[in-house]
Design goal:
6 strands; single chain; four-stranded antiparallel β-sheet; 1 helix; 170 residues
Length: 170
């Protein structure tokens, strides 16, 4: 079981590897068979800033569904494929990053680039490119707002544990 714990307050000078002005988070991997007691009513977080800033998730049910998302078109190796993807985006969306900008919460997949051009997120230990592990994206349906309608992303080193995680607010 993947467990993400985060402080709902803005941290203007967070510890590495957290993004500036983002929640400070901790990841725990647990064996669900080891969980013997579940809190019926978890404690409410203590807020220190404007509650509309968006780091306190509203209670909601998460239902896993298979989802296909695509890499940002400019990162594709084939120019004909880039052209086809751009045509698809124009035909089905508003011309923005509708292919990688998936609302809600997702494991894995491709990262969104709706605010910047693509760049590698590097491991803070060895400098190798990291892979996207988890995204919490702003979404009306789940009543989640991250920062200014952005994404809270967690990246992991692909070769294994021990390198930690890199957190990003995009």
């Amino acid at each position: 079981m993947f467990q993400l714990l985060w402080c709902p307050n803005v941290h203007w000078d967070p510890p590495a590897p957290h993004a500036d002005v983002s929640p400070v988070a901790e990841i725990r991997w647990r064996n669900s068979a080891d969980l013997t007691r579940i809190l019926a009513s978890p404690p409410l977080p203590v807020r220190q800033e404007d509650p509309d800033f968006g780091y306190t998730p509203a209670p909601c049910m998460l239902t896993p569904v298979p989802l296909v998302d695509f890499p940002y078109p400019q990162t594709l190796p084939d120019k004909d494929l880039v052209k086809a993807v751009r045509e698809y985006v124009e035909a089905t969306g508003d011309g923005g990053d509708v292919i990688t900008k998936v609302s809600g919460i997702k494991f894995g997949g491709w990262r969104t680039w709706h605010l910047t051009d693509p760049y590698d997120i590097l491991c803070l230990t060895c400098g190798a490119p990291c892979r996207l592990l988890f995204t919490v994206a702003s979404d009306d349906t789940t009543a989640i707002t991250v920062g200014r309608w952005g994404d809270f992303r967690i990246f992991a080193y692909p070769a294994g544990e021990g390198h930690g995680y890199t957190f990003d607010l995009h």
